[in-house]
């Protein structure tokens, strides 16, 4: 969900003549402690004839000292940087026992080191009165800081003030107004009087338009913007320096990029120096631009992509009408209640779907029976309205796990394909269409694993019984070819016993034909129920899936898919196709096939779906070698072995994909916890992937060895010539600081912050590192299963 933004800041002084410009100190480089990752930085100064020396002041801030040997008619300073805006939790810290409540006292050592940040101004009447009005009743430190910060933001009206310098706290309180620097300095002085070390911070503030409007309260800025800003940082033992923005009343977040932190505002000025007396024309310009952003569930498509989707949908509809396909698509989406929402009230609304939101057997889960749509336009209108009504009713289309991973609602999103009547059903009029869908879905595992959650027990045919494919090929061969009538009940007789779940139940199959061609009352409805599809968290992701199905139906109606033999994937299903790289590559073949048949489907329309299923855990670059970790799949309930016996999943097992670029395989190895990874070349020079299957927490198996956890996972890029790790990264399955969450994240931002907090771009194995011989498993050659590593080898 990260967004890369380019910030450009120009400060321009024009003089009425050539003048002597004394040494200038520029404090416009992000401070070392900035939690927002700065990917690139440039400082350009005019006139070009100057000397520059980079320094660090006593507080560790970066300073550029500029010396101009000749007279100049202007001084122009331009900053250009690229920052990665990735969510972090500003409250993700622990406090030392003596600092748990305010008021608290620093230790003698802390008092000595923090002395400059505890110096106070002389008391003045209005400041004294405001200070006396602060409730000193002992409460948790965080609660106190939140309360005071918010109170100050309400009491001091923000004022855009162009005059130089900082107001005194007395003046700010008397007028009840001030700029960000005035409020920051007032908060600094209040904190110091309360015995809390505080410093003044000058920095950049970046604010981006939210993907979705808030239901309660302000949604934030209407446009992406940036500006110079000021805030306060307080020192909390155990947490370090914590930013408080008195202008907004919020803690400093990923949009706050500190430039200079100092005991006094004068030492944090962006530019300071001497110039010969003259007339000066001053100009100041700042801008911020998104240059890259990952598709995400709250922003799955750009407007250009959405327009292309709408156009293709109309094109597919035209072909379906021209071919007299008579396709209808219905669905049964599910939503989950957030914040105690009661969806039952939506049944009475006149503008709600005809069947309303109905509670399922699962607590807090609500289902909607969406009537079949006969056209793409009808689907678009219905889905857009449905998701918006759900949002207004505080219903969500996704859940968050404790560790921050996103998942579906837990009850799936079956799609029903057919016609308005059984006689119109394209599957009864052309049974080869069903044969094409089943065969194509089987030969492209990406269609199963990209859109279905492993927690939803709907297995593929080859995940049920050992001879399923052999029998399925015989059964599909009995379906008539185009132009030959299909006897009533034939589809049901030849396929129902094969399209089943692990227990032999047809109702739990991936392709459920219970209402397609049965002989019982109400069974011959001509409907194919495509199950196991995870609930798309955004309406446009839902529509992308529906358009994919419409395109496939149109393609198969014209040219059926009839391979001589279904692919025997074997153990590759739970090895190769548990990794996002191979799912993406397989899905790319589907996209290429549709394009070759005249349907310009764009793989980018499904980028948010890939990010939803396979979130990035972290990445690092060492000596030009890039390593990326992504969540991979782990077989869940109903996804057992091909023997037909259901497996009881081990919830402590997880899997991730490691992807490396720029690796010289003859010299370097990639290892995890001291074990070489079975890297598989992708076909691109220097690019390899592998899977790591590990136990995320201690499992109670009655055997300490079998149940031991394998985390944290330490990844090393090992130089076999020097037998040392060049560097690497660490991934923790739980919070590395020991934080134990009691409830799931409240939104996608908190979920992302929990995931990112578990990854470090540092932490390689120190000292000499000699790797054991690589052992590749014959059944799962792309996966390193940490349970098979000998005891003492990790």
TrEMBL record:
Q: Name one Pfam family in it.
A: Transglut_core
InterPro entries membership: Bac_transglu_N, DUF2126, Papain-like_cys_pep_sf, Transglutaminase-like
- All residue ranges annotated as the Transglutaminase-like domain in the record: 172-248
This chain belongs to which protein, by name? Transglutaminase family protein
Q: Which organism is it from?
A: Pseudomonas baltica
